[in-house]
Design brief:
The mean pLDDT is about 95. An eight-stranded parallel β-barrel has the order 1-2-3-4-5-6-7-8, surrounded by five helices. By secondary structure, it is of the alpha/beta class. About 45% of the residues lie in helices and about 15% in strands. The protein has twelve helices and eight strands. The protein binds phosphoenolpyruvate (PEP). The site of phosphoenolpyruvate has 13 residues, from strand 8. Phosphoenolpyruvate binds next to strand 8.
């Protein structure tokens, strides 16, 4: 049985006291649960230290949502991988579609970010996924292959083994439209296949491939029950403790039913 991972992506939400309240209520709920599922909460960077403090008394990990492609220096406003690590982040989302679309992040920059995260002992949660028109044109495997190969396939086997992938169809993010379990499984199996071709069966099996895109308490169990769906990256539903915990429970149930 492979345990699931459920990661919350808060995006640019919550002020300081709201963030504290949400972290505390996640921690309190988790206190009462004996979990196999690993939980990651990706907060805005300004809350990482607080999240790391609260997580010490609980059983969730802390993640960031973005990192600079440069290691240090004159990059006003940027945050380096070393800074994230020193503030308590053990995970970091890379290549989220919002960053690709609004901030024009390129595959080349994403490859540099991945390298810096790994050098600083932070697990990248690498996002890939097609836009609506790419799905409609039937071109989605090619889009996803390019995203993964261009940003990750320079890594050797040992380093690739430390990566989490998240398949996030852009048309499903924040839209209330979710991929069906069949659509998710089809892409996850394809991703695992291309990893296997490059890095072999063991790495392909070990690599976590999360689903993200309007995943919620109602649809999580069906999605997480798919053979190649190893958990979820959760946006909107991670902003309410009960909803997030319900998704964690769905992950527990799915891995027990495996
Ligand atoms: C996300 O932003 O990673 C995401 C999956 O968002 P949502 O769950 O809100 O669709």
């Amino acid at each position: 049985m492979k345990n699931k991972i459920v990661a919350g992506n808060w995006k640019m939400n919550k002020n300081f006291s709201e963030a504290e309240e949400l972290l505390v209520s996640i921690a309190e709920s988790l206190d009462d649960m004996r979990l196999e599922t690993e939980i990651v909460v990706c907060t805005p960077s300004v809350y990482l230290e607080m999240a790391a403090d609260i997580s010490e008394e609980s059983n969730f990990y802390v993640g960031a949502q973005n990192v600079s492609y440069a290691p240090k220096g004159a990059y006003t406003g940027e945050i380096s991988a070393e800074m994230l690590k020193s503030a308590g982040a053990d995970f970091c989302i890379v290549g989220h579609s919002e960053r690709r679309n609004y901030f024009h992040e390129t595959d080349e920059e994403l490859a540099k970010k991945v390298d810096l995260l790994l050098e600083n002992d932070i697990v990248p949660i690498f996002c890939c996924g097609e836009k609506l028109e790419e799905r409609q044109s039937g071109n989605y495997f090619q889009v996803i292959d390019n995203q993964i190969k261009n940003a990750l396939f320079h890594l050797d086997k040992e380093h690739f083994d430390g990566i989490i992938l998240a398949y996030e169809p852009v048309w499903a993010i924040g839209t209330g439209l979710t991929a069906t379990p069949e659509q998710a499984q089809e892409v996850h199996a394809h991703i695992r296949r291309i990893i296997e071709e490059k890095y072999g069966t063991e790495v392909a099996y070990n690599t976590y491939i999360l689903y993200g895109g309007s995943c919620n308490a109602r649809n999580a169990l069906d999605l997480f029950s798919c053979q190649d769906v190893d958990g979820g990256l959760i946006g909107g539903a991670s902003l309410v403790a009960e909803d997030f915990i319900a998704i964690v429970n769905a992950a527990e149930t799915a891995s027990k039913n495996d």
